[in-house]
Task: inverse folding
């Protein structure tokens, strides 16, 4: 797979790598990344199928993880391990990276995701259908796309997040992400590669789990799986936050992250 697209921030300090969730882009972490760049070298990654990164013919977690590992290995990553922060789908990639290539991961931060199979992907299918239902040839302004998705995606915040992927292409528009493959492979995105991981040991590094109080992605039922793979994890539950915990409560998320990184006394 060709190299992943990244944005680099900061020039000194330990390395912090951010991995976005489904339908996201590296720049979703831009505000937090800029704030951390005062003390860290920050990398914002476009994961495969998203943003300006390669778009393979199918979604496979271990292939996505291998692409991130190649990125981090490019500059003697084993001698410069990173704190890897991943949200949702990116959280699974971050977990798999820590398990399969622990020498690259100094610390792990998982934002509202668990190492389990999620069978509830209907909501994401609604988003895919809404985006695929837009006739991009007839859209002249971004506001028209927003209006066209309003009925299927009534939440303006979610709509705005999805529409960040709508890009100008000459005189028309295109989706920056690999929408057809992501929509087709939603079950794979909700999965967890249990069989493939039997050859690996749990990750023994420090782990911070940041869960949204109003989300159901990190529950007591999933605690055994979290403990099995990440025995040194510590969980923080952010009050009033849902699945997009880092964007809904950015100051709380940043404070927890800074403490974990050792930035705070």
Result:
């Amino acid at each position: 797979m060709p190299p992943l697209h990244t944005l680099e921030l900061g020039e000194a300090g330990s390395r912090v790598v951010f991995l976005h969730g489904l339908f996201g882009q590296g720049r979703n972490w831009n505000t937090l990344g800029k704030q951390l760049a005062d003390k860290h070298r920050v990398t914002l990654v476009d994961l495969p199928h998203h943003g300006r990164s390669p778009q393979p013919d199918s979604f496979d977690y271990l292939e996505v993880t291998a692409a991130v590992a190649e990125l981090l290995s490019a500059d003697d990553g084993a001698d410069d391990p990173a704190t890897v922060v991943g949200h949702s789908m990116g959280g699974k990639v971050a977990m798999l990276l820590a398990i399969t290539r622990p020498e690259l991961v100094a610390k792990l931060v998982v934002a509202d995701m668990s190492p389990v199979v999620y069978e509830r992907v209907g909501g994401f299918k609604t988003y895919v259908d809404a985006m695929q239902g837009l006739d991009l040839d007839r859209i002249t302004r971004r506001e028209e796309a927003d209006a066209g998705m309003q009925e299927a995606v009534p939440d303006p915040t979610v709509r705005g997040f999805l529409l960040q992927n709508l890009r100008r292409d000459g005189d028309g528009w295109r989706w920056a992400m690999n929408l057809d493959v992501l929509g087709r492979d939603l079950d794979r995105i909700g999965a967890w590669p249990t069989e493939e991981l039997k050859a690996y040991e749990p990750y023994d590094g420090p782990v911070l789990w940041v869960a949204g109080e109003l989300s159901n992605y990190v529950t007591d039922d999933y605690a055994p799986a979290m403990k099995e793979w990440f025995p040194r994890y510590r969980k923080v539950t952010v009050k009033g936050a849902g699945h997009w915990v880092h964007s809904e409560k950015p100051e709380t998320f940043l404070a927890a992250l800074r403490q974990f990184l050792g930035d705070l006394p």
